[in-house]
Specification:
Length: about 240
Amino acid sequence: MQAAGAVVAEVLEVLKANVRPGATTLDLEKIAEEETKRLKARPAFKGYRGYPFCLCTSINSEVVHGMPSKKTLNEGDIVSIDYGALVDGFYGDAAVTVPVGAVSEDAARLMRVTEESLGKAIEAAREGARLQDISFAVQSHVEPHGFSVVREFVGHGIGRELHEPPQVPNFGIPGRGVKLKAGMVLAIEPMINAGGWAVKVLSDGWTAVTADGKLSAHFEHSVAITPEGPLVLTKI
Ligand code: MF3
Ligand code: CO
C-alpha cells in the first residue's frame, strides 16, 4: 500500500504543478494517464462503476466526482483533484484542492480549514481510538468557522478494494464507532462546504454540487494505523 500511496502522491504533485488559468481539466486527465503509465500503475477510478476517467476534478461549487472536460480553469477558481492508483493489487486514494491563480480570501480560508481538518483527523487515527473520533476531529474543526460537513459522501476503508468497510463520515460523536486497530487503512476525505451541507447530483449521474451554489473543498489521504501512530501513505 506504500507503493500505491507513493504513486498517488507523485501524480498529484505533477498535477498540482499543472493547474493554471487556461488549462483544462482534460489536460490534467491526460497528464494523470501518462504519469500512471510511466509509474507502471493502473488508474483506480477508470472503469469503477462505469466512471470514465482517471481523475475527478471538481471546480468551485462542485463537491466531488466532477468529470474532466474541455472547460478551462479560470483565475480565482478552486479545483479539487481526486486520484487513485492500483499497484500490485493494492489501492491508494488521495485528493487536494488547489487555487487557480489568485483566489478570494474566503476561498483560501475554506481550503485552509479543510486541509487543517484532515490533519486533525489523521492525528485521531490511532490504535485504541474509535472511528468517530476521526469524524469528530473534522466536524469540530470546521463548524466553528461557519462551514458545514457534507453528509452524503464519506471516506472509506481501502486496501485490495478501492472502497472497503468501514465508512468514514466527517461528522460524528467521539467514542463511537468501531475500535481502530493497527493494520487498518482508511481513506479520510473531508468534503467541506462554505454554505449548507446539502448537495445534489447533476444529470450526468456523477457530479455532486452544493445545493446552494456556494464553494466546496476536499482533501484526502490514505492513512495506515500503526503501533507507532498514523502513517500517511499518500504523502511525498
Ligand atoms: N476518492 C473518491 C472516492 O473514494 C473517488 C472515487 S470516484 C469514482 O469515492 F469514480 F471512482 F467513483
Ligand atoms: Co476516496
